[in-house]
Amino acid sequence: MKLFRNLSLRNKITAIIVSTVLLVLTIGFSINLYTEANSIKERMLAEKILTTKIVGNYTVADLTFSNKESALEALSYLKRDESVINAHLYDAQNNHFVSLYQNNHSHKFELDINNSWYEFEKEELHVIEPIYLDDTRMGSLYLHASTTDYLKNVQNRIKYFVGLLIALIFVSFMVAGKLSSIVTSPILSLANAARNFTRDKKYQLNLKAQYEDETGRLVNAFNDMFSQITNREKERDQAIKQLKDNEENLKLILNNMVDGVITTDEDGLIITINKAAEIMFGYSAEEITGKSIKKLIPGTRESGEENYLEHYLKTKQLRFIGIGREIEAKRKNQSSFSMRLSISELPQDAKNKRRFIASCQDLTQLKLQEEQLRRTQKMDALGKLTGGIAHDYNNMLGVITGYAELLEEELETQPKLIQYAQAIHQAGHRGAKLTRKLLSFSKQSASESEQIILNDLLLEEQHMLEKTLTVRIKLVFDLDENLWPVWLDSSDMTDVILNMCINAMHAIEGNGQLTITTQNETLNTLDAQLLNLAAGDYIVLSITDTGCGMDTQTREKIFDPFFSTKGSEGTGLGLSQAYGFVKNSGGDINVYSEPKHGTRFVLYFPRYTKKESNDEQHKKTTSTEGLNGNETILVVDDEPALIELSSALLTQQGYQVFSAENGLQALMVLEKENIDLLLSDVIMPEMNGYELASAVQEKYPHIKIQLASGFTDDRYADKIDSALQKNLLRKPFNSQELFQKIRELLG
Amino acid sequence: MVKMTHFINWPEKSVEQTKNNSNDSLFTICIDGAQKYFNSLEDWATSGVIKKKPVALKYVTSKISSLNNCNILYITKNHNLDTYLKVANEKQFLTISDNPGNAKRGVIVNFSNVREKIGFEINLDAAHRQGFKINPRLLKLAKIVSSEAKK
User: Fold this and answer.
1) Taking CB atoms and an 8 Å cutoff, what residues of chain A touch B7?
2) N or C end of chain A: smaller count of CB under 10 Å?
3) Rounded CA gap, A396 and A730, in Å?
4) CB distance B137–A60 less than 8 Å?
5) Which value does ipTM take for this structure?
6) Which of B137, B138, B139, B143 to mutate to test the interface with A (most CBs of A within 10 A)?
7) For residue A593, which of A626, A552, A557 has the smallest C-alpha distance?
8) Are the beta carbons of B6 and A64 separated by less than 8 Å?
9) Residues of chain B positioned with their CB less than 8 A from the CB of A134
């Protein structure tokens, strides 16, 4: 049965058909054989009975007249029947009359010989027929015959049927084989299609049904199934893709977060770690996954960080983990850094285990920025202080040098006194230079900015710098050929470079090298934040020496005014002036130094892109001739001593001078007098110089205006004529500068 | 003789004739001979039946009238043979005798002794002429003779 079950469908159908045919034919043939055997038997019996009757009848006269010879002759006809074994004729008294094959006569009858009788015994047949003459029984004939022929006949029949059966089974086998292919071929083609579908991914849809039977229905069902599977596969692929996209998106979000994100189980073992955390701690995700978070946050017993998780697990109080706390964390290279750690609990995982998510914020940059801010604030405070003092000093120095000049002119006849006046004048002049440096640091000095390419300036000053550095120090330029332009005061820039080169020279003992590099750099937000700058394009100037370098303490103070490492040799203003200049230019200065290795100053200047019209750029007048005039000039200053000085100088040159101590007074004067030129201070109480200038420009457009100031104040830059700002007379000014400016204006 | 009647069929005409007679319900055996030889037959004839009819024995003379109603005429003597044969042709009764050569003369059945066994001759021509039908099984045992031509 198992063998049958494992047969192919085709063979099964063939086997079923053949076995059915075999069964039916066997039953049919058996019935037929049985019937026929019976029939043969009956025929044989009937035949023998008939023969017995005929022969018996034939002997009736012999029996009647006791003629044995004739009777024997009659019996001898039976010889023609080979199946007859012997025959015995009995008379009416049942006495033996004659026998055929008498030698074989051995039968003793216990049966009634008077009646018809027959019996099959083994392979023999016994027949007794009485012989009548009219109604009188004249005797009986006993016939003993063999049934071998009959049996042979039956055997032949059986052989015939078996032969026929085999032939029919063979035929049915052949036909069944052919017919079963009608059933199996659609199933096999379905199986092929299914195999193609599953194994080879050949989505052969719309199989054709060969017949409109069950296999046809099966094919249609397969078509439906294939299309359903294909649709489901499509849906599944889309869902998987969407899931992958979502996962990728979440991963992207997590990996693009600035803060590090770490998930752990309840034992503090790391489950996942994002990119920021990988960078922050220096471990790759593979390295740290499954390790204890204590590897990243070693903690100390004093701070109680070690058991913060255990505390939470015990107490369930969020205060132990929920709010962020600043802690010391450790990188892979064992260096420590400050970090803000915030932990919250995630929903439990599939195994009902607790999970935590930690957000880590690296505070290194924040700390640096705070330090930067602190320094900037310090410098701002220093700047305001020095600026205020320098401003007042400037005014006083203006008075001192002004009057010293007047004294020189008045004391032409007393050469000795002239010398005193000149000494006063020179001291005042030196004082003015000093205050200018202070103002430069405090970003309050007026500047004469222009568009320049740093490379041009450096190459221009190369010779001078080489001379300053002397032969023991090699000057190396590494300049970017396509350097962007900057907007700054070139003379101040030269001063800054010179100052820094001199500092480098002092730092280098014996032979050394000074490298000046320029390059373009685009700062992103983060870099710019670190440098305390706005993001954008910058020109970077690096000045690197191979000197003795600085320690941290020194580095902290080098930009402070009056801080010097050169003792009495230095003024302590060189680097503070550089600091003020760079800041004033919208850039920043950084210093990197290692003791015994050298120092590098890196200066950032914003790229200049505005197209400034150059037509207003004034021509520098170098001629000192023709500086007299007779025009009317109104001098406005909140410092009476300066009004006096200016008035004295201008009167001396032939000008008619009016004065006012503030803007309102000046306007009143203008209403009364016909004024050609207004000379005004910028920083004044109530109404400043710019406000006054704009009022005058509006009301008296013909009046020329000259502003003077110790500050550069951009607050009104867009409200006033840029020409006025550019033409600013920088305080403290000397008479030559004043006369030149006035003459340029009046023509 | 009685056994012989089983194998012989009498012609229809003869039966009708007997029907017209008063004794038609009897099977009459006529005997031309001495009664003393036929005691056993007489004994049998008292209860004997031939052709489903009771048997009557009748001893006849040469008178023709005495031959009426005879179904069988047993002839023991030959002196009236010709007469009997002639009447037999008309009356259609079966002629039986036991003298050698009688069959040839026209007697239908003539008994004889053959090797100490009773044998018989049958004149088939005479039988056919008179309309008797003789069973072939009987013929098988008999000696068939034909009538001799009359001198």
Assistant:
1) 61, 64
2) N
3) 15
4) yes
5) 0.83
6) B137
7) A552
8) yes
9) 6
Q: How far apart are CA B71 and CA B88, in angstroms?
A: 10
Q: How far is CA A659 from CA A138, A631, A647, A699, B148, in A?
A: 200, 14, 8, 19, 221
- What is residue A540's predicted lDDT score, i.e. its pLDDT? 92
Helix or strand holding residue A514 (H, E): strand A512-523
Residue A204 has a pLDDT of 58
Rounded (10°) CA dihedral B58, B63, B64, B68: -20
pLDDT tops 50 at residue B55? yes
| 3-state DSSP of A346-387 | ECCCCCCCCEEEEEEEECHHHHHHHHHHHHHHHHHHHHHHHH
Contact between chains at B141 and A61 (C-beta distance less than 8 A): yes
Tell if the CB–CB gap between A65 and B6 is shorter than 8 Å: no
Taking the C-alpha atoms of residue B17 and residue A715, their distance in angstroms, rounded to an integer, is: 188
Distances (CA, A) of A279 to A254, A261, A335: 13, 11, 13
Q: Percent of chain A beyond pLDDT 90?
A: 15
Q: Which of A58, A67, A133 is the closest to B6 by Cβ?
A: A133
Mutate to test the interface with B, among A65, A68, A73, A131 (most CBs of B within 10 A): A65
User: Is the preceding peptide bond at A347 cis, omega within 30 degrees of 0?
Assistant: no
Q: Is A669 on the interface with B (CB under 8 A)?
A: no
Say whether pLDDT at B72 is over 50: yes
A132 touching B (Cβ < 8 Å): no
Q: For domain B3-145, give the CATH number.
A: 3.40.50.2300
Minimal CA separation from A61 to chain B, in Å: 6
Q: Chain B residues with CB-CB distance to A under 8 A?
A: 3, 6-7, 117-118, 135, 137-138, 140-141
The interface residues of chain A toward chain B in range 522-551, judged by CB-CB distance below 8 A, are: none
Contact B3 A58 (CB under 8 A): no
d(C-alpha A432, C-alpha A322), whole Å:
61
The pLDDT of residue A516 is above 90: yes
Q: Which amino acid is at B81?
A: L
- Would you say residue A622 has pLDDT above 50? no
Asked if pLDDT for residue A524 goes beyond 50, the answer is yes
**Residue A619 — pLDDT band, cuts 50, 70, 90?**
very low
Strand blocks (E) in A565-703: 588-594, 598-606, 632-636, 656-660, 677-681
Report d(CA A190, CA A175) in Å as an integer: 23
pTM greater than the 0.80 cutoff: no
pLDDT at position A719 is 55
Q: What is the nearest CA distance from B110 to chain A, expressed in angstroms?
A: 15
pLDDT tens-place string over residues A194-207: 888 777 776 656 77
Three-state DSSP at B28 gives: strand
Q: Judge: B141–A65 Cβ closer than 8 Å, yes or no.
A: yes
